[in-house]
Amino acid sequence: MKAEILAIGSELLTPLRSDSNAAYLTDRLLEAGVETIARITVADDPALLESAFRAALGRADLVVATGGLGPTADDLTREAAAGALGRRLRRDETIVAALRQRFASFGRVMSPVNEKQGDLIEGAVVVPNPRGTAPGQWIEVEGRVLVLLPGPPKEMAPMFERHVLPRVQERTAGAVLRTRVLRIAAMPESEVEQVVGPVYTAFENPRTTILGAPGQVELHLTARGATSTEAEERIERLAARLREALPGRIYSEDGRDLSEVVAELLTARRLKIALAESCTGGLLAARLSSVPGASEFLERGFVTYSNRSKSELLGVPPELVQAGGAVSEEVARAMAEGARRAAGVDVGVGITGIAGPGGGSAEKPVGLVYVALAGAAGDAVRRRQFPGDRERVRQQAVQVALEMLRRGLMGLDEATT
Amino acid sequence: MKAEILAIGSELLTPLRSDSNAAYLTDRLLEAGVETIARITVADDPALLESAFRAALGRADLVVATGGLGPTADDLTREAAAGALGRRLRRDETIVAALRQRFASFGRVMSPVNEKQGDLIEGAVVVPNPRGTAPGQWIEVEGRVLVLLPGPPKEMAPMFERHVLPRVQERTAGAVLRTRVLRIAAMPESEVEQVVGPVYTAFENPRTTILGAPGQVELHLTARGATSTEAEERIERLAARLREALPGRIYSEDGRDLSEVVAELLTARRLKIALAESCTGGLLAARLSSVPGASEFLERGFVTYSNRSKSELLGVPPELVQAGGAVSEEVARAMAEGARRAAGVDVGVGITGIAGPGGGSAEKPVGLVYVALAGAAGDAVRRRQFPGDRERVRQQAVQVALEMLRRGLMGLDEATT
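Predict the joint structure of the above. Result:
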């Protein structure tokens, strides 16, 4: 079963507002085994709305529309949906009477414009709305389902939970969806694709999508099954193959960020760390300290932007900088070891490079970065030439440092980092 | 001129991810006088994508699609758009050669899967992508325009600003729109609204929208005029009134970030700065070092997460921490002065606080932060109680530090910060 969600209302297309219903519905439907294939936000225009309903009913088994069920002139959902289905609207006097009574209970007289909230599409089943005036509608058409719900989340959500979701679950008769995200750091997207492409394209279920960010690639797996156990097993089968294809490279399958994984490794091993950053300027410290409880493992960080600070704080010999420049393997090593020693901790990290846009040369171009580890996570240094602008270079450098730490702490083969 | 925006990618329909491009594009198009009538997010499915393109081209004058231009098997935008238009794809060898060169410049060999990124729809004009491998495409069809852009916002936004928006503006001809963004730091959105609301609501042209982020408020002014001079004058008239209403608080009207403004002030005054951060853990250093040329003014930064590092590196007396805890006015002052003195520079900054989620108490709740300045930007300390989670607290603290620096360096009345 595939769903499409329509959010109706011109106000949802202004910069200040956004629609939270669609994300909520996507989430709840997925848990019920229904995949959302499209989500559309449409302005209050009759022709536009009708075309959106027609397109949605042409491709999805379940169409859920929110909004546009109010009493005003720009509440056009009922008319547009009826038009798309080629059905008529019929005023339900029972609903109108109930609305009138609702107004009376607040000591108010219902205005005639509210009467149109009693208009039902032929064949519709009413979805009661205990929290508002606009009732919802459930319409079945040739095996497909169209659901109309009001826009306010406080009205929509309980109606969906109580009356829509149970009927959807009956129809999916047990089919369940499960998703998992596999994360890989410090490996280019095209390289990951080349390795895993032949693996995941052999599977129709789960379906896999690849997402890249600076220094990170995510594999999103979505499996369908008759039971949650079956769906989980299907995911695990592919995940196991992907783990084999990328030995030791998948750092998280449960939503954790790389900084959290490294934080947990350091905490579990009761190791303290000190950081020495030049071109990343505190970005690695900021990433590691974003993890709650960072004071357990992060002893201190040095942002040694000047050459003087590198020698004063980290003991990097000035001759080393004079001889080979501040961006070199030797300086990165001396920074890592210097940070470790100055702080009196177990692990030191050193990062030095040219983030750009200035400062590059033929020999040392923008994007050249050295990352070094010293101490209990191993002694190692990596040279990388990163693409992209200043921010991307810095972010990729941080990802490489975190991945070196992870591999070092886990005792994985450093050479493949 | 009416627009429809397509966000392409199955991952955008999972609970974990959301699409920020559509809101950005809606905003920018509106400023250019183009109304967005529909916004759709579509899964990576060829038939679905083609139907979405066909529907959009049937109702909008301008269709902007983001995503699905990568090299992998589920990057289907090119094929689907070509199908909807009834046009062919043609491999552009110039693009492929440029891609190959791009890979070579990073010392890597391009994988064959990347070649399809050189596929152009017949009649397409290439939209260059300086930050990534996927070029965009601009296609005109019977008076309508279809634009294909990559999904990553860092690639998409500059391409849109530089190559798409100017062409859209040519087409909206006649009426000219001009926009300006006024930025205010370290002042709650509701306070800004209270002060400026009565001012801007008196103006129909320019139109003003307010956007808030942690520690920052933006006023977006959009004016319409027969000429650009008229539109500029209208904007300046309102901007002048807003400057009066918020004396000294608007830090930028030309797109500069607060860190850039502070960087320019420090550079112009030839002042060197040193930072001492506890709860912000390097975030202030990362912000200031994100500005190109930061080595001109940033001498060093200390991330003094442990109490030991506060005393060893900054000379904060251990008694001070023992007496009043690490989060106090006195410790913040001692950190700022200690950083300045240890580095032998003109300006020092100290930040200490409780970012949460743990570590709070009745007396010192989560969100309590002290920020101190020492030296050539003045000696000052501010106590703030920030709302929000760990990341929001940290970001707000950084904004307060930067705004204190800006006001101190400009000699503005510190008391109002």
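Chain B touches chain A through 87 residues (CB under 8 Å).
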